[in-house]
Write a structure and sequence with these properties.
disordered N terminus; Immunoglobulin-like; 2 domains
């Protein structure tokens, strides 16, 4: 599949070679670098992991901002990115992922920032009992973990609104434009966040306890999620020893858009007309989240049932039927990524199924956008008080459902996710990309002579924009060289080492990227 994705990328680049192209903010990576502020404390709450005893825990995030050149926007859309991990930290969960610094989290947030967003990769509270032989315990503790995670994401959203109101907006975010994006377990949280808002929705029969269990607060016939203990849907109230509501109280937590990568929804009935637009990416044979409706199992031997859920196919089909995605369904996208998705999504815009062969001796494939390193996992395991062999086991378990894992493969999937998703965000939320005819700056850019032989020059007559970078790529998108010291108005470059063929000269500014085709004889 990832070879197909690379073919799509090449086709997209080929489409630009016949004319000048103006790349837009949010649609393209127009900033040359990213500034990361790590371990920002966005709240504090009561966790039960790992001791099982309620304990106060700081909630942290890493915030990614565009940098390398002055940003003309004083307020930028915010993407809150929620990692995977099955509510247990990496390696402890016997898998290689489960933190805000997972490779995919870092790459996705970095790409969003280079496109001009602010992105926050957040941690959230962990802890449930996945291997208990009692299904009631497995189901109940998982649903409680999901609920705690939702409350943490809401605290994160409120943090940015409070910061903008009283601290001068540290990260320069547009608090009216907040997008939730969840990966794996984070996808479950993102979907639940934007749909779960009624008491009746946690009182469905599958969410009611089948036993009394004082240890976990279960009462037979009552919801596993007891708001008298855990707090209401905003995290307010509850028992202080079980939940701390003092996280940016009084600020709103509404969001504008939701993205799911390999997660699922607790129940399709939660979806209603008027919910925010949604986009979903899903491997059709994912063993951890069904593509349609189906059960979630703990991957023990044998697998143990937890709860029935609705996957991306059901979610997007219902969202489209309810009219929630009309904002981009009417756009008529014809880019290569959309055409590929439309070939396999049964006409459901906003749904990108990834069709992958079932790995040998495995129930399916999950997370093709992930990559991980055995040496790093061994080091991490030891830093957490585990043996190096625990890191090796986590690596092997990751390969079981991602057998041809590699960074190259993961980046191919991330390319597709970014290029399918961002036009829909831009279109629905009316982001200011300048999506129009090339402006005066673009018209002032020229490359000559063209065709060239031993050298060529770049001329920029309009000095109203600061050029952050110039680079040269071949027709497949492979970077040949990059120049961050362009000062203009004219600069010459050596071409003697270039093979004959078509290249792209790319000029980057905070407003976008201008590209010119260059033919080398």
């Amino acid at each position: 599949m990832h070879k197909t994705l690379r073919t799509i990328l090449v086709a997209a680049i080929l489409g630009l070679t016949g004319h000048s192209a103006l790349a837009q903010r949010f649609l393209s990576e127009v900033f040359p670098s990213v500034n990361v502020t790590s371990d920002v404390v966005y709240g504090n709450n009561i966790t039960i992991y790992p001791s099982g005893i309620p304990t106060s825990e700081d909630l942290k995030m890493d915030v990614y901002e565009p940098s390398g050149v002055a940003d003309p926007l004083t307020e930028r859309p915010l993407i809150i990115y929620i990692h995977t991990g099955s509510f247990i930290p990496a390696v402890f969960n016997q898998n290689p992922t489960g933190a805000k610094t997972d490779s995919t989290c870092v790459e996705m947030c970095s790409q969003f920032a280079r496109r001009g967003y602010v992105a926050a990769s957040m941690d959230y509270r962990q802890g449930w009992v996945p291997t208990d032989p009692d299904q009631d315990v497995r189901t109940g503790t998982l649903l409680q973990a999901v609920y705690r995670g939702i409350l943490d994401v809401k605290a994160c959203v409120r943090y940015f609104r409070k910061d903008a109101a009283i601290n001068g907006n540290t990260f320069k975010v547009d608090t009216n434009t907040v997008i939730l994006m969840g990966q794996g377990t984070g996808g479950y949280l993102a979907l639940a966040y934007v749909t779960l808002d009624k008491i009746s929705e946690i009182q469905l029969s599958k969410f009611l306890s089948g036993s009394n269990n004082a240890l976990y607060g279960f009462q037979i016939g009552q919801p596993y999620v007891n708001q008298a203990i855990l707090g209401d849907f905003d995290g307010y109230g509850g028992v202080p020893q079980a939940n701390n509501p003092n996280n940016s109280v009084g600020y709103g937590n509404k969001v504008s858009f939701c993205v799911n990568m390999g997660g699922a929804l607790g129940d399709s009935s939660w979806l209603e007309a008027g919910d925010v637009p949604m986009v979903a990416f899903h491997v059709t044979n994912d063993p951890f989240a069904p593509y349609g409706d189906g059960p979630v199992y703990v991957p023990t031997q044998p697998p143990q049932f937890v709860v029935d859920v609705s996957g991306s196919q059901t979610v997007i089909t219902n969202a489209n039927a309810l009219g929630n995605n009309d904002c981009f369904n009417s756009a008529g996208f014809t880019d290569p990524y959309t055409l590929r998705a439309n070939a396999v999504n049964n006409g459901q815009d906003g749904l990108f199924p990834f069709e992958r062969p079932v790995p040998p001796f495995a129930p399916g494939e999950a997370g093709p956008w992930e990559w991980f390193d055995s040496t790093a996992l061994k080091t991490y395991a030891q830093s957490m008080g585990l043996s190096a062999s625990a890191g090796v086991s986590a690596f092997i378990n990751g390969l079981a459902t991602n057998p041809d894992m590699s960074k190259t493969k993961a980046l191919a999937y991330i390319d597709t996710i970014q290029n399918y998703l961002n036009p829909r965000i831009v279109y629905c939320l009316s982001l200011p990309t300048g999506l129009s005819e090339p402006d005066a700056f673009s018209r002032s850019v020229s490359v000559f002579p063209n065709p060239a032989n031993t050298s060529f020059s770049i001329s920029i007559l309009d000095h109203s924009r600061q050029v952050s970078k110039v680079d040269l790529t071949d027709i497949t998108g492979r970077l040949i060289w990059s120049d961050t010291s362009f000062r203009g108005p004219v600069r010459s470059y050596d071409a003697q080492h270039l093979l004959p063929g078509i290249y792209l000269v790319n000029i980057y500014t905070p407003f976008g990227k201008v590209s010119r085709r260059l033919l080398i004889n």
